[in-house]
Amino acid sequence: MSSSTQWTVGQLRAELVGLPDDTPLVIDIYLDPTGIARRRVPVVGAGYGPDIDPTDPLFEGQEYPLTAGYGDARAEPGTGQAP
């Protein structure tokens, strides 16, 4: 299992270098402490919500949220079914 240390934007950005812009993002959610059982869900959004400015001083020092969808990340878009 990978480390449970929380990542920063800089770490994520460094990992994404060289990947095509249309590469889908997923989150593996560990279901047990060993990391063997996990569920993969799609990233479907990011940020604090519509009409919210993340540069507002109110958000300074806060975590930046990514939104995970419900369902299988390998599902065909709009169907919920694996290809």
Mean pLDDT: 82
The ordered H/E elements are HEEE
Q: What strand line-up does the widest sheet have?
A: 1-2-3
Share in β-strands:
15-25%
Distance between the terminal alpha carbons, to the nearest Å?
27 Å
What overall geometry do the principal axes of the alpha carbons give? globular
Using the CA coordinates, give the radius of gyration: 15 Å
Write down how many β-strands occur, each being a DSSP E stretch of 2 or more residues: 3
Question: Can you count the helices?
Answer: 1
Binned, the helix content reads under 10%
Counted up, domains total 1
- Helix/strand-derived category reads mainly beta
Low-confidence residue ranges: none
How do you describe this structure in short?
The protein has 83 residues and is mainly β.
